[in-house]
Amino acid sequence: MKAIVCPDYGPVSNLDYRDLPDPEPGPDHVVIKSEAIGVNYPDGLLVQGLYQAKPETPFVPGMEAAGVVESIGRNVIHVKPGDRVVTLLDHGSYAEKVLAPASRVYALPDTMSCEDACALMCAWGTAHHGLRQRANLKAGETLLVLGAAGSTGLAAVSIGKAIGAHVIAVASTAEKQTACLEAGADVALPYEGLREALKSYPGRGVDVAFDPVGGAGFDVAARAMARNGRLLVVGFASGEIPKLPVNLVLLKEYSVIGVFWGSFVAKEPAVYAANNRELFAWHSTGLIKPRIDERQPLAKAATALQRILDRGAIGKTILIP
Fold first, then answer.
1. Which has the least CB within 10 A, 98, 113, 204, 306?
2. Residues sharing a CB contact under 8 Å with residue 82, sequence separation 6 or more, in sequence order
3. What's this model's pTM, rounded to 2 decimal places?
């Protein structure tokens, strides 16, 4: 089979498209013939050696793949060859065939495409966990989403609207702001002049801020929080880890909350499974719909990944084997 291999930690341009042996399932594993592979910002951090996890090189990157079950181990009973499924991995999905633990394989409803299934795993899973478990976002609250045109940001916009929040999306260009409005945002703002815009915005402040970007936007959000607000630290796509003036937390009486989705999935699998059920149910009724930004052949993984690292994507990027 063909796969993308990270031979050693370094720039994504070093990724290699090569032949690897077809995987064989162990007793508790499933082999999936991929039809769609999700590309995520953390994939780029992983191959550069900048992520929390550091698998031994060489390795195949990628966390999401959806397709058809090709073979199963003897202990696997919830799926069978021919079933359409999606899987979530620590790494290993950038390949024509994927070996996945059976516990991480989920059957797809007939109404869901493989591309949408990949989108709902990491990006939407992160946003859902952040807003549901970490922020406990409620209907009627005000949600501020920074980096709102990326795959995780657009997911936060849509999930916020599904919960019933008033959503303020922040994105860098007019095209991205339009995408946020199409995803359901009530207001879409640029970063330029954001502090003043939020000051003049009617209401008592931001109840929940969702920040996967860091940098200057975080500083603005930290000053816009309402009393009892929740400022979610999701990531640092800007490359800048901000410093928090903790006197603001004291004076405004809000909370700063970390969102580490990988830890959540590992430590609370039952809650994660319940989150997936809610996302799948929302998708089946049309309440949410991931935006697929672009499709690239598997061989072009490095190009697709670099575009995400450069914050050029609007929504989800998919690799097609």
1. 204
2. 68, 69
3. 0.93
